């Protein structure tokens, strides 16, 4: 029965590509949660996602081509329209009676904020729209969009994006200076999300400080995790604001594609700051890739067996949400939890 359908990771929306990557008459191959997908644009320009497997003799549809908004298989030329319906079999000649009502397997698509999102499986019990990228395209705001590949799982990647204690080691000087500073956080788990508010954080952004916060304004810093794969880091310094939002896409259990939007409102210097933000942001992520790829090597050899310190309450909350989904449960039904924890960075 639909109403009792267990939830699973396929019920969420994942980025398949950026809008600009999928041109007219183009087909892209993607993998999400081990599913092979062929992407193209139908005759109305809207994105179409089909299982990358021709129903005829199972050639990959992504090796074919798009003509008039229809995808043609490269093996014997069977053609599929924007809903995956078979529309032509060249070997049948002018009489296409055999075509019938056959269909390729198709997936839902949504185009939003310059991304094309796919959902592999709809579940009425968990109908959450694709995450909006904060302030994307808004007046006065700039976005630098970065793409990176991690040889690690979605959960480890997502946790890294809002892990503060690693920053003084992995990103020493670039992003953060080690100040041996005591920080107090309010950590909340609620509705399948974790929110972390840093209280009384002083200027501790290393190299970034000179243009992020030259006037040394008080900092508001809040991190968010949204199930199962999204993190959003928010900094406010006076009138300036800086968001780092990452969507981690599970290619498989050991491979994750990550799109990161660095979105900010810096006033008149905003446009000029773009190359600096892109360069520094990418450099920081490359340091994380080294750390995360190494972590997965060890997990593959010895299995995953974590041990926690006080600051890891954030990870424990995130993992409780992730594990609930693994068990087919709705994380929004987990009890709300509020903790105040202190740690040193
Ligand atoms: S395998 Fe696709 S047309 Fe034959
Ligand atoms: Fe990092």
From TrEMBL:
Domain of life of the organism encoding this protein: Bacteria
CDD domains in the cross-refs: Rieske_RO_Alpha_N
SUPFAM superfamilies: Bet v1-like (SSF55961), ISP domain (SSF50022)
UniProt keyword Metal-binding present: yes
GO molecular function: 2 iron, 2 sulfur cluster binding; metal ion binding; oxidoreductase activity
Limits of the Rieske domain: 13-118
Pfam family, one: Rieske
This protein's UniProt keywords: 2Fe-2S, Iron, Iron-sulfur, Metal-binding, Oxidoreductase
The protein's name: Oxidoreductase alpha subunit
Organism: Halobacteriovorax marinus (strain ATCC BAA-682 / DSM 15412 / SJ) (Bacteriovorax marinus)
